[in-house]
Design brief:
There is one protein chain. The chain has six helices and two strands; from the N terminus they run βαβααααα. With 101 residues, it is mainly alpha-helical. The chain has two domains: 44 residues, no CATH class; 55 residues, Winged helix-like DNA-binding domain superfamily/Winged helix DNA-binding domain (Arc Repressor Mutant, subunit A). A two-stranded parallel ribbon has the order 1-2. The longest helix is centred in the last third of the chain and has 15 residues. The relative contact order is 0.14.
């Protein structure tokens, strides 16, 4: 979701025209605090998947997650195995389609 940061926002004004739900942001209806909470929880539930989806390299992921490079490679392979995919793009698409991002 975007390069550099993740966005959770309410659909107010022209936000829906600027941000694409599930692509550039997680959009929720206004005045629905539970939906906002759920979107934030989704975003933070798997930091490795979040970083993978944002396009970070394994080395940067390792640094951000305070893990070794090999641990990140293993984590990514585990994500691939669990989702039945073999590329970062497919893992990102799977996560988006299943509400994980």
């Amino acid at each position: 979701m975007g390069a550099g940061g993740a966005i959770v926002a309410s659909r107010v004004g022209q936000i829906g025209e600027v941000l694409a739900d599930e692509q550039t942001a997680l959009l929720v209806e206004p005045d629905e605090p539970r939906a906002l909470t759920d979107a934030i929880v989704r975003l933070v539930s798997d930091p490795g998947l979040r970083l993978l989806a944002r396009g970070f390299s394994n080395r940067i992921m390792a640094k951000r997650l305070s893990l070794s490079y090999d641990a990140v490679k293993h984590h990514i392979q585990h994500i691939y195995d669990k989702t039945g995919v073999s590329t970062r793009a497919r893992a990102t698409l799977f996560a988006m389609e299943h509400g994980l991002l």
